[in-house]
Every structure is written in C-alpha cells, then in structure tokens.
Specification:
Elements: H1 8-16, H2 55-70, E1 81-85, H3 94-107, E2 112-116, H4 122-126, H5 138-144, E3 153-154, E4 161-164, H6 173-178, H7 186-193, E5 200-204, H8 211-219, E6 222-228, H9 237-250, E7 256-263, H10 270-283, H11 296-300, H12 308-311, H13 316-332
Parallel strand pairs: 1-5, 1-6, 2-4, 2-5, 6-7
Antiparallel strand pairs: 3-4
Helix pairs in contact: 3-13, 7-8
Pfam families: AAA_31
Function: May play a role in septum formation.
Domain AAA: 81-256
C-alpha cells in the first residue's frame, strides 16, 4: 500500500457496522472470517494494531476472547444429555438455536450430535452438511430402521460436532410412520443403539406436533424451548407443554422442560423487556440468564453453511450462544452459573455489546 492512506473507506465500513438490528453502535467487521487490516506503509506488520480504539479492533479482541473461552472446556455430563429443541410457533429461532448451541458446546470441548428432524433441513444446511435426496438421512433411520451410525456426518468446521441430516423424504415420514410398529419410539431405539460416545444430542423438531416431534419427545430427556422476545411470544406454548405432559405420562417419564432461552432480544425496545420479564416470572429458574440478541450476523451465517460461531466469532450473537452453552453445561452438573465474567473485556455499561446478557 502507498504512503498515503484514504480515510473514506474506513468511514463507510464503520457506518455499515451499524446495520446490526440490535447494536447501538459499531461492533463487528461486516465481512465474516479472520482477516488483518492494513495500517499503512509506515506501520510494520509486526506491530499489533490497537485493540480498543476502533470498531474492528474491538471486534477482533472479542473474537480472540470468545475463541479463548470456547477452548477452556466445561464439565462434561456423566451421561449423554438428550435435548429436544421444540416450539410449534415458527420463526422463534428454533433451528438457529439448535445449531449454534451445538457448535458452542462442541467448541467448549463436548462431543455433540445434531439430529435434524425438520423436513426443510435447515439445520443440516447451517452446519454445512450435504442433504440432497440420495444422502442417507434420518428418514432412513425412522422408516427403514437404518443404523444411526450410517447417516451421521462430521461437521466440517467444528471438531466434535456431528449431524444426522434431514432430506426432503422426511416430509412424507409422518404418514409412513403411522403404519409402523412402535412408531413413537423409533428414534429412541436408534439413539440407544448408537455406540459412539456423546455428551449432548440436540434434536431439531419441525414446527408442528406430529409424529416426528413425538419421536423426539420420546427419545429426549430435556426440552429446550426458544421463545422470541416479541408480541405473541407465548402463543401456542400451552399446547406444546400439554403434549410434553402427555408424553411424560404415557411414554417417557424422564421428560421435562429444563431450559427456556429468550431469542431475538432487542435491548432498545420496551416490549422485549416486558416479554422477558413475563417469561421469567412464569417459568422461573428454567429461563437462562443469557438471552440471544437480534443480530444480522446470526441471520447471515446459515447462507454460508456456517454457524455464527465460525462465521463471526466476535459478534454479539456468537458471544451470547457461547455463554448460553456455558450456562446449560454448568446447570446440567449442578454448578451455579456466574455471569460476572460474561463478555470478558467488555464494559458492562456498553449497550452495543452486552444486549445479549441480561
């Protein structure tokens, strides 16, 4: 680069950083992935750029801290925790929560399997897993009793993370399952026969309460319900809770709602705070202290076949999912969650950074 440095691109980039719907000021680099910023000809490549003086520097510092915390490791459960991520209301961040929590738990050192039970296959797409019609999938496991080990694929970007993909064939599985023996427990049997060691299994359910979701509820031990911090957030939740009670009473006595996660939290709106307060009042300790912000980065990541953890590790969404995973892991082994060190290096009174942590 020449001796003169133009400032205009820098200004444009800073302005573009404000596009995140839940950030009051600039925070993250608009282009995903690690990269270095040229500081001009008079600055040596050996000289580290200032980390706190610019939006890019702050984002880089957050990314380094996030990945550092992800590598710390967390207590591993004594036995596999099978968590069913369900909410019959669409658009609440169910699939997004499944894949990003799974990636976060894997980055924390766990071995995690995502079971994609949604015929749309969005979880498979977000994890970068091929799921065209000819790929062995969870459909073959449910309908043809194929071993789960034959359909599980490793996720390319995250060590310790695996996926049993969904294909379009799954759209007809509800009808085909009706005539099969033990139609409600076919997924449970497949998981029990799976011999690879796992710390967590996260099951992404379709936004309905049919046989696919029932299979997930029979196979699982815990139900994780994402709730968006918007109007009508609790609409339809009563029916899901009644179904959980029915499955617990007749098919799976161990099933219980263990976790409520607030998603799409916009700290600038009074409505988000009111919804969060209402949910916390109703569900109490089941609600995680960490909430997930409304973030452009979270929305963009699946189109690149990535989770937000690899797409933009310094973003507010990535940091919040890492904290949510940490809280879930500690809660599972009976350790009290301490949010004191959440978002290390961030000023707690900076609304642009901590909107995901309440």
């Amino acid at each position: 680069m020449g001796g003169s440095v133009h400032c205009e691109p820098e200004v444009e980039e800073s302005e573009s950083l404000r596009s995140d719907a839940n950030i009051a000021g600039p925070m993250t680099d608009p282009v995903p992935g690690p990269r270095t910023e040229s500081m001009g000809a008079d600055v040596s490549r050996e000289t580290p750029p200032p980390m706190d003086d610019t939006p890019i520097g702050r984002a880089a510092q957050l990314a380094v801290e996030a990945l550092g915390r992800a590598g710390e490791g967390l207590p591993r459960p004594e036995q596999t925790r099978i968590m069913v991520v369900a909410n019959q209301k669409g658009g609440v961040g169910k699939t997004t929560t499944t894949v990003n929590l799974a990636a976060s738990l894997a980055l924390h050192g766990g071995r995690v399997l995502v079971v994609d039970l949604d015929p749309q296959g969005n979880a498979s797409t977000a994890l970068g897993i091929d799921h065209h019609a000819e790929v062995p999938s969870i459909y073959d496991v449910l309908v043809d009793s194929r071993p789960l080990s034959e359909v599980v694929q490793p996720v390319p970007d995250v060590e310790g993370l695996f996926c049993a993909p969904a294909t379009i064939d799954l759209a007809g599985a509800e009808i085909e399952l009706v005539s099969l023996v033990a139609r409600e427990s076919r997924l449970q049997r497949a998981i029990q026969a799976y011999e690879q060691p796992l710390d967590y299994i996260l099951i992404d359910c379709p936004p309905s309460l049919g046989l696919l979701t029932v299979n997930a509820l029979v196979a699982g031990q815990e139900v994780l319900i994402p709730i968006q911090c918007e109007y009508y957030a609790l609409e339809g939740l009563g029916q899901l809770l009644r179904n959980v009670d029915l499955v617990r009473g007749h098919l799976n006595p161990a099933l219980h709602v263990s976790t409520i996660l607030l998603t799409m939290y916009d700290g600038r709106t009074r409505l988000a705070s009111q919804v969060a307060e209402e949910v916390r009042t109703h569900f109490g300790d089941e609600v995680l202290r960490t909430s997930i912000p409304r973030s452009v980065r979270i929305s963009e990541a699946p189109s690149y076949g990535q989770t937000v953890l690899t797409y933009d590790p310094g973003s507010s969404g990535a940091l919040s999912y890492l904290e949510a995973a940490r809280e879930i892991a500690l809660k599972g082994v009976g350790i009290s969650y301490d949010a004191t060190h959440a978002h290390i290096g961030v000023q707690q009174n900076d609304p642009s950074m901590v909107e995901g942590i309440q």
